Design the sequence.
C-alpha cells in the first residue's frame, strides 16, 4: 500500500483527495448556516432599476423580497430572497448585514463612517441609495467607509476569525455575542480533524518532493537545485512584498498627524509656514498624502483663498487631476462649492477640462456651486463659456434643482436673469419633479414663492408617485409653504397620489399638527378621513411613524378612526409597532389609545400578526417588555403567529426569558 502511495501518481492523487476533503470540510465548518439560500456577488445593485432586475433574476417576490447586503463575516456581499418581506424599515445611522441564521441586522455607522452613513430613515429595498453600506473591504472585514474599523484592524494587526464570528454573530449594538458550548465543541472537533489532515498532507507532500527531487538530480544535475532556489527566492519576494504593503498601510494611518499639520497650514493660508514646511524635500511627499476623507493638500487648498499656495502645490508635482477618494470630486468641484473665485478662475483658464469631469454623484462643479449658493462662481463659469444647463446623467438634476436643495434664492434669481439658461428654471428631473417640488421639500418659502411668481408649474406631479408640491410640503412638515399653496392654489388640496393618499396622509406622516389644523379648516371631514383603496387612514399613518401629538389630535377630531381596519385586517395597534425606533413614543401612543379609546391590543390580522409579533420582528426590546408586562396574554392568542420565533434577537430573548422567570416564580 505505502509503495503505491509513494508512486508519483499515487501521491498526487492522495494530495488532491486530501485537499478536496479539507476544502469541503472547511466550507462546511465555515459556511453561512443561513435558513435560506444566499448567493455571493462581487457587487450589489446600485440603482432601483438594477435592484428590480436582480429581483427578477432571483425570482424574488413581495413575501420573499430581494436584498443584497454584506454577509455576517464581511467576507463577501450576498444576494438572496428574504423570507420576512421585501420592504423592511430601518433607522438612520445604520447599515445592514445578514446576521445569525438569516436576519437583516442593524450595523451602526453614524460615529464610525467617514461619509455615506444613512442620514435618514429608509426601507431595506432602498439600500442602494447608500453605496457606502454596500462597499466592503473583504480583507479587513470592514465597510470601506468605516475608518475606525479599518484603522483598528491595521494598527492592531487583528483579523476577525471566521469560525468565531460564525458561531457568535452580532448583537443589535454591533458587538459579538457569546459562543455556545455546542458551537465550541464542534469547532474543537473540526479544528483537530483539520490539523490531522494538514499534517498528513504535509508528510505526503514532503515525501513526494523528496522523491521528485532525487529523480531530477539524477536527470538534470544541478539544474534542479537552481530551480529550487528560484522558487524559494520568489516565495521570499512575495512574502516581503506582503509585509511591505502592510507596513505602508500602517504608516499611512500613523502619519495622519503630519498630514493634519500641513493641511492646517494650507487651510490657514500661512505662506511662510508652508514655504518652511516644503523646504525639506522629505516633507513634499506629504502633499500627496490624503486624510481620512481622501483629501490631499491640493483639495484642501481649493477650499481656501490662497492662490500662491495652490500653485506651489502643483509645482510640487501633486496632480491637478487627483480626485477625492471617497466621492471622486476634483479641486474645481471643491473650489466651486466653497466659492473660491481666484482658484476657480485659474483652473478655468489653465485646466478647463476639469469642468466636464463629474464626481460619484454625477455632479459637475456648477452643480456644487449651485448647491452652495455661489452665484459669483456661476457667473465666472458662464464667462468662461461653461454650459450651466448640463444635467446629471442618472437623475437629470440641474443647477436650479440643486439651488432649491441648498435653499439658494440668489442662484434661482441668477438663472432667471440669464436668457441663455432661464429655461432651466422649469426643467424637470428624470422622475418628473420640477423646481417647485424641490423647493417644497427643502422648505424655503422665499425660493418657493419666487418660482411660483416666475411661472413654474405649481400643479406638476411626480411621474412615479403622482405627488404634487402640497403633498411634499405636508410630508416634510413645512407649514408656511402649505399655507402659501392653500392660499394661492387651493384646488391642490383635493389631489391624490397614485396610492390614493391625500394631503391628510402626508400631514399625518410629518406629525405637524399645525398643518392638520389648516386641512381641517379647508377640507370636508369626509375627505380628510377618507382612507386609501386598501383602507389605510390618517391615524394608521400617524401610529406607524410614532407621531404622538398627531395621534391625539386625530382621535380628538375623528374618534371613529380608532377602530377602523385595513384590507389586511390591521388596525391602529399593529401600526404602532410596524416600525422600529421611537419606542417610548409608541408606548405613549398605545397607552393613550387603550385608556381613552379602548383600542383592542389583542387584535390579530388576517395573516396572524399581532402587536407583539410586529414588535419582535422590528427588534424593539422596550416595546416587547412593556407589552409582556401589561398584556401578558399576548403570546397565547389563538390564530396568531409565534412572536418569539420572529424575533431572532438576543436582547429580546433575554426580555422574554426574564418575563417567564418572573411569571413562574
Sequence:
Amino acid at each position: 500500500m505505502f509503495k503505491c502511495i509513494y508512486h508519483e501518481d499515487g501521491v498526487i492523487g492522495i494530495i488532491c483527495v486530501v485537499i478536496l476533503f479539507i476544502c469541503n470540510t472547511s466550507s462546511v465548518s465555515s459556511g453561512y448556516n443561513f435558513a435560506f439560500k444566499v448567493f455571493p456577488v462581487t457587487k450589489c445593485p446600485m440603482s432601483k432599476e438594477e435592484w428590480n432586475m436582480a429581483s427578477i433574476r432571483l425570482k424574488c417576490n413581495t413575501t420573499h423580497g430581494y436584498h443584497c447586503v454584506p454577509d455576517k463575516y464581511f467576507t463577501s456581499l450576498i444576494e438572496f430572497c428574504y423570507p420576512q418581506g421585501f420592504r423592511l424599515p430601518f433607522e438612520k445611522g445604520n447599515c445592514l448585514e445578514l446576521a445569525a441564521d438569516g436576519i437583516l441586522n442593524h450595523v451602526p455607522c453614524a460615529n464610525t463612517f467617514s461619509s455615506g452613513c444613512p442620514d435618514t430613515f429608509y426601507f431595506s429595498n432602498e439600500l442602494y441609495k447608500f453605496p457606502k453600506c454596500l462597499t466592503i473591504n473583504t480583507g479587513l472585514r470592514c465597510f470601506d467607509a468605516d475608518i475606525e474599523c479599518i484603522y483598528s484592524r491595521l494598527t492592531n494587526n487583528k483579523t476577525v476569525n471566521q469560525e468565531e464570528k460564525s458561531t457568535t454573530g452580532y448583537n443589535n449594538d454591533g458587538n459579538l455575542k457569546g459562543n455556545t458550548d455546542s458551537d465550541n465543541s464542534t469547532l474543537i472537533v473540526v479544528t483537530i480533524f483539520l490539523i490531522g489532515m494538514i499534517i498528513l498532507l504535509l508528510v505526503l507532500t514532503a515525501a513526494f518532493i523528496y522523491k521528485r527531487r532525487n529523480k531530477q538530480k539524477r536527470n538534470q544535475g544541478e539544474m534542479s537545485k537552481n530551480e529550487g532556489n528560484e522558487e524559494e527566492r520568489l516565495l521570499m519576494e512575495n512574502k516581503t512584498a506582503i509585509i511591505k504593503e502592510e507596513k505602508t498601510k500602517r504608516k499611512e494611518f500613523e502619519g495622519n498627524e503630519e498630514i493634519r499639520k500641513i493641511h492646517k497650514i494650507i487651510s490657514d493660508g500661512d505662506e511662510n509656514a508652508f514655504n518652511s514646511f516644503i523646504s525639506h524635500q522629505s516633507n513634499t511627499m506629504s502633499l500627496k498624502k490624503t486624510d481620512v476623507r481622501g483629501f490631499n493638500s491640493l483639495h484642501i487648498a481649493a477650499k481656501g483663498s490662497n492662490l500662491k499656495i495652490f500653485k506651489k502645490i502643483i509645482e510640487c508635482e501633486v496632480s491637478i487631476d487627483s480626485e477625492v477618494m471617497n466621492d471622486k470630486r476634483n479641486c474645481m468641484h471643491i473650489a466651486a462649492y466653497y466659492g473660491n473665485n481666484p482658484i476657480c478662475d485659474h483652473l478655468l483658464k489653465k485646466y478647463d477640462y476639469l469642468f466636464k469631469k463629474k464626481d460619484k454623484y454625477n455632479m459637475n462643479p456648477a452643480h456644487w456651486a449651485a448647491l452652495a449658493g455661489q452665484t459669483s462662481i456661476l457667473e465666472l463659469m458662464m464667462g468662461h463659456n461653461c454650459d450651466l444647463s448640463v444635467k446629471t446623467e442618472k437623475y437629470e438634476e440641474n443647477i436650479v434643482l440643486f439651488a432649491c436643495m441648498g435653499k439658494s434664492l440668489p442662484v434661482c434669481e441668477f438663472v432667471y436673469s440669464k436668457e441663455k439658461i432661464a429655461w432651466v428654471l422649469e426643467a424637470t428631473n428624470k422622475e418628473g419633479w420640477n423646481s417647485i417640488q424641490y423647493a417644497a421639500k427643502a422648505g424655503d418659502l422665499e425660493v418657493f414663492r419666487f418660482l411660483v411668481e416666475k411661472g413654474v408649474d405649481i400643479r406638476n406631479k411626480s411621474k412615479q408617485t403622482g405627488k404634487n408640491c402640497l403633498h411634499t410640503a405636508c410630508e416634510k412638515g413645512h407649514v408656511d409653504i402649505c399655507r402659501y399653496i392653500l392660499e394661492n392654489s387651493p384646488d391642490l388640496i383635493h389631489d391624490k397620489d397614485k396610492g390614493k393618499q391625500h394631503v391628510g396622509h402626508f400631514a399625518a406622516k410629518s406629525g405637524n399638527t399645525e398643518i392638520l389644523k389648516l386641512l381641517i379648516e379647508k377640507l370636508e371631514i369626509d375627505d380628510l378621513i377618507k382612507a386609501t383603496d386598501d383602507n389605510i387612514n390618517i391615524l394608521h399613518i400617524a401610529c406607524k411613524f410614532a407621531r404622538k401629538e398627531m395621534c391625539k389630535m386625530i382621535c380628538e377630531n375623528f374618534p371613529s378612526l380608532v377602530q377602523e381596519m385595513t384590507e389586511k385586517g390591521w388596525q391602529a395597534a399593529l401600526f404602532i409597532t410596524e416600525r422600529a425606533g421611537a419606542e417610548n413614543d409608541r408606548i405613549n401612543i398605545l397607552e393613550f389609545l387603550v385608556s381613552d379609546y379602548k383600542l383592542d391590543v389583542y387584535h390579530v390580522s388576517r395573516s396572524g400578526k399581532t402587536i407583539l409579533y410586529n414588535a419582535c420582528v422590528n427588534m424593539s426590546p422596550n416595546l416587547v417588555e412593556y407589552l409582556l408586562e401589561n398584556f401578558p396574554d399576548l403570546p397565547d392568542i389563538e390564530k396568531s403567529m409565534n412572536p418569539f420565533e420572529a424575533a431572532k434577537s438576543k436582547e429580546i430573548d433575554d426580555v422574554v426569558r426574564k418575563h417567564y422567570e418572573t411569571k413562574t416564580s
Q: What stands out?
A: The CA atoms of residues 298 and 319 lie 8 Å apart.
